[in-house]
Amino acid sequence: MKIKGIDISEWQGNLSLDDFKKIKESGIEFVIIRCGYTTYGKSKLKYVDDYFENNYKLCKEIGLMVGTYYYSCATTIEESTSEAQFVLDIIKGKQFEYPIIIDTEDNHNIDNPNYASSSQASIGKNKLTPIISNFCQILEKNNYYVAIYASTYWFRNNLILSDLNMYDKWIAQWSESVNFEENYGMWQYTSTGQIDGINGNLDFNYAYLDYPKIIKENKLNGFVQDSILDSEQYTLIINYLYSDGNVASSSLIKTIIKDTTYSFTSPDIAGYLPSIKIVAGKMIADKTVDVIYTKEKISILAKIKKVLKKIFLFFKKIFK
User: I want to staple 32 with a disulfide (CB 3.0 to 4.6 A). Which of 67, 190, 195, 282 is the partner?
Assistant: First the structure.
């Protein structure tokens, strides 16, 4: 499956109904609309995209499926929580056939000592990863299908991928093919797409999952029927811990409809083995599962091989 779409923001200007007709007639099936953004620097002000409401309304009117993204500049858990709540307020009462996405790419002023600490690129992957995860967890707890947008370079160098493997990914790599080792649901393959009658360049994307089906069948993104009561939904929490009780990876928090089966693979952590590789079952009540990671034992044979290898390299160096 490969479905073609675009993503837009106020940078495309005030698009009209005729513009969206041309977009749809060109073969585009979905539009990811920016709902808002946080300003970079020390102020960290949050704004709704100037044309979000217009773009959402006209896409729905013309029959284009929509998702939305928020440009994040959060560098603390508190800021991430504030951004997530801001997004929830913006999208309340709307329906999205495609994911709600956090856009992480903030590298402003990384060479300016007065602002460097306020940039996502400057705080390091160990700090940024739980910040992004926190945003995702809050949206998921509110019954939204979330995804993370970043370039393949950013995913590899600014985030800990193993801590985010439970979240869908929208990757940006402007090329003819993708060089990315993780699973992803969408690919932004160019920033210079053209549609007849539309001024300027557009970001073009491919979606590889049937998001409308997934989202509607699971009653997510505003597609919740009135007949579904709160009592018919339960929360699954999976804590990933080291054997000494320290946090091994971000917790997985999912709101799942009653009697729905689930299956989640525990993240890989080098040198450690999880007590449960796959957490699976059926939701009949709220549930918390602790996955404990213990150090992987090295066999005596492996230790002997390691010692012999060191001895071999030592004599090889002497008699070289």
Answer: 67
Residue ranges of the chain whose pLDDT lies below 70: 109-117, 225-231, 298-320
Residue 210: count other Cβ atoms within 10 Å of its Cβ.
13
HSE-up of residue 239 (Cα within 13 Å, Cβ side): 11
The torsion angles phi and psi of 205, rounded to 5 degrees, stand at -135, 155
Q: Where are the domains of the chain?
A: 3-217, 230-295
Q: What CATH topology corresponds to 230-295?
A: Immunoglobulin-like (2.60.40)
Is 230-295 the same fold as 3-217? no
CA 274 to CA 276: how far, in whole Å? 5
Among 79, 4, 3, smallest CA distance to 44 is for 79
Q: Are 80 and 102 in contact (CB under 8 A)?
A: no
55: exposed, middle or buried (C-beta count within 10 Å: 0-12, 13-18, 19+)?
A: buried
Class of CATH domain 3-217: alpha beta
- Taking only the tens place, the pLDDT of each residue in 269-286 is 888 899 999 999 988 888
- State residue 219's pLDDT score: 94
Q: What is the pLDDT of residues 121-172, one digit of tens each?
A: 988 999 999 999 999 999 999 999 999 999 999 999 999 999 999 999 999 9
pTM for the full predicted model: 0.70
Q: What b/e sequence results for 110-140 when a residue is b if at least 16 CB atoms lie within 10 Å of its CB, and e otherwise? A: eeeeeeeebbbbbbeeeebbbbbbbbbbbbb
Q: Are 230 and 210 in contact (CB under 8 A)?
A: no
Residues in a beta bridge with 241: 247, 292
What letter does residue 223 receive in the DSSP assignment? Answer: -
